[in-house]
Amino acid sequence: xxxxxxxxxxxxxxxxxxxxxxxxxxxxxxxxxxxxxxxxxxxxxxxxxxxxxxxxxxxxxxxxxxxxxxxxxxxxxxxxxxxxxxxxxxxxxxxxxxxxx
Length: 101
Description:
Elements: H1 3-13, E1 20-25, E2 28-33, E3 36-42, E4 45-49, E5 65-66, E6 74-79, H2 82-85, H3 90-99
Antiparallel strand pairs: 1-2, 2-3, 3-4, 4-6, 5-6
């Protein structure tokens, strides 16, 4: 899946969140709910911002941190597991948790 088609997939499946925006950034995109930055579609993968309530969900599913290079590692962003991306019920729930916590 191309970068643009993956971005479009993410935006389509999260359209119900309201006030969702996507901006180009550093070879990828940034997802915003209002002014709050919460996600990074990058290279065919999606990473969500984590916080103490959601962090355990990601390592429990072996979800790696966002690391586009050896020098750039964002410990607060973890890859959304494929089974969540494909689940029309849980995907928006995970996005809401990332965006509104």
